[in-house]
Design goal:
By secondary structure, the chain is an alpha+beta fold. It has four helices and eleven strands, in the order H-E-E-E-E-H-E-E-E-E-H-E-E-E-H. The chain has a domain of about 140 residues: Nucleoside Triphosphate Pyrophosphohydrolase. It starts with 9 loop residues before the first helix and ends in a 7-residue tail after the last helix.
Length: about 220
Amino acid sequence: MTVPAEFGQIPLQRLTEGMCKRKRGILGEHLSIKTAVLVPLLFNARGELAILFEQRAATLHRQPSEISFPGGHCEPGDRCEKDTAIRETKEELGIASQDIHLLGPLDMVVARSSLFVYPFAGYLPNGMATLAPNPAEVDTVFTLSISTLLTATPEVYLMEVQSVPPENFPFELIPGGRNYPWRPGSYEEVFYRLEGHVVWGLTARILRHFLQVWQQYVPFPDKR
């Protein structure tokens, strides 16, 4: 990039050159918790393309017995979020790397509490045959066909998030003090009720996004 003449002074020139080279980041990203998940596709016994879901083990401390996709926290040994999604899928479903074909990334989800979720779509070519779910993490697995999911109408509820300052907050430094009009935030909570299962939370939001991507690119039946 050519530096404008009015930026000819050395400090501004260096700043301009440096900013042109730097990659845009996210403020506060260093405080975030990064996770990655896989939306696993396979063919079911009827030859329909379906999505595999896990029901988390009842003994887990976080979200016991809830329905989720394979996934977890990014670890130092993971080269990227894709590696995290594959590693967690291997650990939870008991399959080898060669049994997971990555299809591509979905949109990142920024959840409350500084949680960054990186979802990926993947294909399990051997279907259910090679699965050996880890009982410490997974109670059971089940599938829902793409055709069933595409015809489902999710329930969507708008949740409100309020700012609650701590007691030692310096109210005297801001206009209005304790009466400052904090702007509330909001996010959508999504529910799918299908075949006796309830899929909700981040899993449902990622599922809805995946189905929107599917409809954008795959305008044909999901049979073999």
